[in-house]
Structures are given as C-alpha cells and as structure tokens.
Design brief:
heterodimer; A: Tick-borne Encephalitis virus Glycoprotein, domain 1; 3 domains; five-stranded antiparallel β-sheet; four-stranded antiparallel β-sheet; disordered N terminus; B: 2 domains; 8 helices
Amino acid sequence: MHPVTAAESIESEPQGNLTPLRLGASYAWGVMGLVVLAGLVLHFMAGPVPARAEAFYVLAAAPLLAVIYVLFQRNSDLARFFCSIPLAVASTTVTLAMALVGGLFPLAAIEASLGVPSVWASWPFVLSALVLAVNLSASSARRAWPLNALNLRFLLSHLGLLVVVVGGGISAVKIDRVNMVLFENRPTNIAIQRDGSEVMMPFAATLKDFKLEYFPPTLGIAMIADDPEVDIELSPSPDFIEEGLVTVVDDWTLEVLEYKPQAVLTGEIWRDIPWDTSAPAARVRATSAGGESHEGWVSCGSLDSPTTYLAIDPDHAVVMPILRAKKYESRVVIDTGDAQQEHLIHVNSPLSIGNAQLYQLSYNEEQGAASEYSVIEVVTDPGVPIVYFGIGMLLLSVLWGLWAGLEKKNS
Amino acid sequence: MMAIAAPVAIGGWLLASGAYAFGRKKPWIGDVFAMLGVLAAALFLATLWTQLGRPPLRTLGETRWWYATLVPTLGLLIGWRFQTRAMAIPACLMGAMFAWINLANPDHLDKTLMPALQSPWFVPHVVVYMLAYSALGLSSILGIWALGKSVITKQPISQEDTDVPHRMVLIGFPLLTCGLLFGAIWAKQAWGHYWAWDPKETWALLTWGAYLIYLHIRLKNVMKPKVTLGILTLGFAVLMACWFGINLMPISGDSVHTYTRTAD
C-alpha cells in the first residue's frame, strides 16, 4: 500500500476527520483492474452492453446502493474508499483510457477487431464509467451535509457531473432517432428507423417547399490532371463572383467580364434560365504577370449543364469550385390530429412537437436546389432535460470556480 | 492593414520578451511592447473578420490567430491581477511563435460558413475554448520550464514554480468546461444529440479529463511537483492532439467537425 499523506485523508472528510485512509491508491487501481477484467469476461461471454432500459436500471442500482451505504456507514473504510480521490483518479483514468481507444481508431476498425459496434457499448468502458458514477454519487452523498459553501461547490460540480452521466445513460437506452423523407405536397406519417424498418409517427408531415441557398460562386486556379487518382490542387480566390470583379490568384489576374447566376449551356452559349437545375457561369479573362491573356466561360456545372473551365496552360485552368450550401430549409405542415400548423425547419433551428424535436437533416445532394425531397430527423430523448439540469449545475460550478481562480489568495 | 499588423504584433511581443528579460526592474516597458503586440493582433483579427464577413473562427489557421492574440493578453491580465511577470516572457514568445507559424503557412481565405456553424453558439464556444487553451498552454509551458530548470540546476522545484501554473489551470479548466458544455448544447440544437462520440468530442472529453485528473492528483500530491507538472505537460499534449493532431489521425474521416481544416 502506498504511504498515506494528510492530504489524502481529508478529501472526503468535510468534518475534519484526519484518520488515514486504509483503502488507498493501490486498492483503487486494483479495483479498476478487476473491473476491466470483469468487463472483458462479460464482453467475450455476452457481447456488447444491451441498449435496453433493463440494463440501465440494473447498472444504475450500483451508485444508488453506494449512496445508501455512505449515508448509513459514513465513516467506514469502504464508504471512505467509495468517496476517495484515489478511486476518482483511477476510475477517471481507466474510463478515459477506454475512450482513448475510441478516439484513436475508426468505428469500423473497432468493430472488426473487438466485435462491438463501438467502445462505448463495451462492458469494460461501461463498468469503468459505472465505478466513476459510484465515486461521484458516494462523494456527493458524503458532502451533502453540512451544506456550507465548500460542500455546495463540491456538490454543484460532482453531483452535476453525475446528473449528466445519468441523463446520458437514459439517452443511450431511450433515445429514438428516425427519419421522415418528405416529398412536396405528399403528407406522410411514416418514418424510417436506423435498421430500415418503418414506424408510424403520432403526426403527419407535409413538405410545402424546400429551399436551398448557396453562397455565391468563387474562382480558382486548379492543376489539371488526366489521372483521376491524382488530387486536384486548387488555389482558390476568396472573393465571391460579381460582374467586374478583379482578383489575383497565383500571379494570374482574373477579371469577371460577364456573370450569369442561373444559366444553362445551350450549344455553346450560356443562357440566363432561372431553373433550380441551372448553374452559375462567368466569362473570365485571365492575364498572367507576363501579359499572356486567356478569355472564356467557366462554370461549376449542374444537372443540366456541364462543368466548364478555362485552360491557361497545359497543366492549369481557371475553374469555378463547386458551390457551398449557405442555408437549407423546409416549410412543412404538421398535422397532429387536433391542429394543422405550418413551420419552417432549418439547421440549428429544430421544431418541437410534443416530446419530439424535428431537425432538417439532408436532401438529395446530387439534385441540389432541385431536390425532390427533404429528410427530417425526428428525435425523442427523455434524457435531455436531465442532462440539461446537470449542465446547469456544472455551469454554476464553473462560474464559481472561475471566480475562485481569479481570487488573489490561494483557493 | 493585415500585412502590417501581423509583423507589428510579432515584433511587439519579441521586444516585450527582451524587455522583460533584461529590464526586470522596469516591467512596464515590457508591458507597453506586449500591449502594442496585443493591439496589433486584435486589429489583425478585426480586419480579417471584416474581410471574411464571418467570424474568423473556422479553420485551424484562424483559431491559431486567436490563440496568438489571447495568450499574451492573458499573460498581461493575469500578471497585473496577481502582481507577477512569471508568465510574461513565455506568453509573449508563444504569441509570437503562433503568429509566425500562421505567417509561414498562410490560410486560403474562405468567406463561406456552412449552415451548422451559423449559430449564436459559434463565437462563444470557440472563443471560450481558445481562452481555455491559452491559459492551459501557459500553465504547461511554465510547468515544462520549471521541470527543465530543476533538471539543469539540480535544484528542487520552488513553490512559486508550481503555484503559477496551477493558478492558470484554475482559470483554464472552468473555461474548458464551459467550452465543452456550450458545444454539447449547440450539438443538440444542430445535430439532434448533445453527445455523439464524434472523434472531436471524444478528444475534447479526453482533454477535459486529463486536467480533471491533474486537479485531483494535485490535491493529494501538492508536495510532489514533478508528478503534478509532469501530468500538466501530458494534459497539454492531449489538448494539442484535440486541437491539431486529430486531423492527422485515421479517425478524422469519421468526424463531422471537418470545418476546422483549411478550406480545400
């Protein structure tokens, strides 16, 4: 056993009991070793942790039992061990070591080698996090009384983190994410689950309109390569195209002589045609530092028109890089049976219908603005309010911690 | 404007470092040069923001400019607050180094901002993270300096050599927590879930956890400065992996946080 210091004995002793901890760091690391071993045995015997509510309830019993034990056996060696810093350090380190595996290797590689869909569903990770939850719950129970400023700050951070972990566990087993593929003016209450099966929603949704707005196009000079395996090197101009724009890229001066935001190539002529499938096109003059000049049309192309570039030497051309989405949104009518209401859903602005949130997920990227459908993701997650409550507690502790950190005396 | 501001910032911070090193009795001279650097860097960022028409917080290069600006700023503010110039030289040198890295590897300017980033959370999330990274970066540099000094001079590490880096962690860790929590709230709003174990999220958690472990270990090992400063150094390595390194890992392809790279 490692030598016990005075500091070690006080971490969970709010009332000043300085009796040295009997179960210290070596016990904590030993326990974590056994936990990982047990996790590996379970992993090879039973596979990944089932994402079911029953599994959550069984696992959640451990921190609850720890709280009850600490409340009744406050000064026992075991209670103090549950609350101890050595256990906090060991359980956090081992949990993070598991997370490191998930942070280093792609999901597909983990599934191929470990046979689990992710590290996060593996028994060693879940059991390590469970010990961390036991440590958080036990130490929170121990510091719940007396409720002085020191203990309140401890509770805000530790209990706050525990609440987030519990909420996260509820989310893991209870979250429901399904996609509704909406076609214009065709009401539907069918959603598609992750496994591809269909499920009926308690409301019907009708897409009234889907809008995709792009940033204006830009110009660039690209290296032309015949070999499709070779990555195209692009030197882009930051400036959005407009008529009269003059920009310098790689010692070439590019001048926009004519610009058609929505055009279609008919024969050899770009004509202004405001279709969703149109492409922007610009007539550009490229002049080198030495005075060499080239002039012609460039376009990023679209479903109706080909990509067009202006060759300036055998290896390089002036190009219009593909357009980048600025905003996409769906105007939908939601029919809950009691009422029909029109809403706008776009990225970062989900719509709440009862317990569900509706998110603008995607569209047909090949068709772009002409996409004939919009995909809305419907998310139901009962863990969210709990997680947000924990986040609120953590933010309060953060403010308190920052204040303490800026105090002139040592905190 | 930007072509002048960046060299002025670097020059200001280098002069400040020299003034702090050779004019210990007149730290105000170093402060003046450091402030000149901070003002020039702030002007650079303001000009970049105006030129791009969006917050310059998207690419690695853009966040490096914030880092270069905030590290000396924090060095000055914390120095004034706690009446110490212990971090003044490392702060100015770090600012100059990061600004120089950016000048040597200039970003392609890109005015676009993808829909997921068009959120009120964008600026607070990234700025709070940059502030946290600045404070934690300073703490690690000071820790490495103290460790190195102890090895070279064969003298024990002084109380001040551990207290100042620890003070920076006490400021940086709450900010790091804030950045993590803001990110979770934003992710829920943008992608439907507050935590998806995306590689960037995982590394953000690892970084936060590394400093959490440091804080707990220091509680018990305040008399073992080599241990605590060693963990601080390790924590900064994890932070750097989260900020830069992840883009070089094979797992980066699994991440939706790809907008941190230079536009290509």
